[in-house]
Amino acid sequence: MDQQHVMALTRTGSRGPARPQERRVKHHVQHSRIALILLAALALGGGLMQPVIQPAAAVVPGAIGRIAFQSDRDGDFEIYAMGPRGELGKHGTKAKKLTNNTDADVTPAWSPNGKKIAFASARDGDHEIYVMNADGSNQTRLTTVAGLDQLPTWSPDGSKIAFESNRDVGAPYFEIYVMDANGANPTRLTNNDVDDQLPAWSPDGNTIAFMSSRDGNQEIYVMNANGANQTRLTTDAAPDSYPAWSPDGSKIAFTSGRDGNQEIYVMNANGSNPTRLTTNAVTDSMPTWSPDGTRIAFGVSETGGSTQVFSMAADGSNPRRLTKGSAYNWYPDWQAKP
To answer: What is the per-residue DSSP string for 25-37?
Structure first.
């Protein structure tokens, strides 16, 4: 696992980003105080946020739902949710804290009907997949196998959850699995001696996009929902990761370092016409589409080492900061309003 997808496993409250130029970081489980999914990519570039992007309320249709994200603003990583206009500006409202544990709760994923959130947590001494109601109630553990289970993504009918795990291969390698939405019938979809990670389910339910390093570099692949027909979409020498389907299934947003810095790109669903959307001197990563397809939320590294959630129009214009403070606000996921 290299610079584009590093699990910074640190004690709760630590904010130190991973060091630049690391190509592989081993996972270290240190008791239960662990923060998942902080990218070493935050250190890439080391630059400051360009001043053209100013904190402001995002201009988005009100019909779309909330944005869930992880933040360590209260000392350790928890799941929060905010309105589509974010926390800033005269229309902004403070994000609501949904989880409250001494161990990390991270990588939220809304169910297709917007009524539940799947996430990863170390609260029981191991990284497992949990699910809760949209208001944070009824938090339920789904996986119980030794190893790291994380980064859940729902099938569009809400019946299944795909996720990445090293349960069968051990650190540092991951494979893609799928299970029923209640945690039953876990099934392994990929089988390589390298990382297969970051699953993202297509809106029609037939395809799962993911990142794999099987060809010597992190690239975006797709496969059938049953694991068949695994096909490479990107072929750039730089790492490509974090695929995210547009709501109509015609495009995939992703993170790439192909122009010298991690930025958000979009391409057609078959991998053609990759187009750069962001042009910042710091890391832009983890895109997620608004349910109406008009905007993309994403994580941005900022001055002083913090990270913030921004959104922009689907063509890359009108970027706006959504989260406040100087914490790590990261890994957004956009809700389809129930």
So the answer is: ------TT-----
pTM of the model: 0.83
What lies within 8 Å, CB to CB, of 302 at 6+ separation is 48, 49, 282, 308
Per-position DSSP letters for 122-190, written without gaps between them: -TTSS-EEEEEETTS-S-EE---SSS-EEEEEE-TTSSEEEEEE-TTT-TT--EEEEEETTS-S-EE--
Residue 139 near residue 146, CB atoms below 8 Å: no
pLDDT at 212: 97
Give bridge partners of residue 179 from the DSSP assignment: 161
Q: Helices then strands (H, E): number in the chain? A: 0, 24
Domains of the chain: 52-334 (2.120.10.30)
Contact between residue 242 and residue 254 where contact means Cβ atoms under 8 Å apart: yes
Report the alpha-carbon distance of residue 277 to residue 279 in Å, rounded: 7
Measure Cα distances from 169 to 53, 142, 162, 301 in Å: 42, 20, 17, 32
How does the average pLDDT of the chain come out, rounded? 83
253 in Cβ contact with 296 (< 8 Å): yes
Please, are residues 315 and 328 in contact by the beta-carbon 8 Å criterion? no
Tokens 């990107």 correspond to 234
Phi-psi category of 189—alpha, beta or left, where left has phi over 0 and alpha has psi -120 to 50? Answer: alpha
- Rounded-to-integer distance, Cα 143 and Cα 317, Å: 40
Cα–Cα distance, 195 to 216 (Å, whole number): 10
Q: How far apart are the C-alpha atoms of 83 and 260, rounded to whole Å?
A: 33
- Residue 38: name the closest of 76, 2, 8, 75 by CA: 8
> pLDDT for 75-128, tens place per residue?
999 999 999 999 998 888 999 999 998 899 999 999 999 999 999 999 988 889
Helical spans, DSSP H, in 68-132: none
Rounded to whole angstroms, the Cα distance separating 250 from 316 reads 17
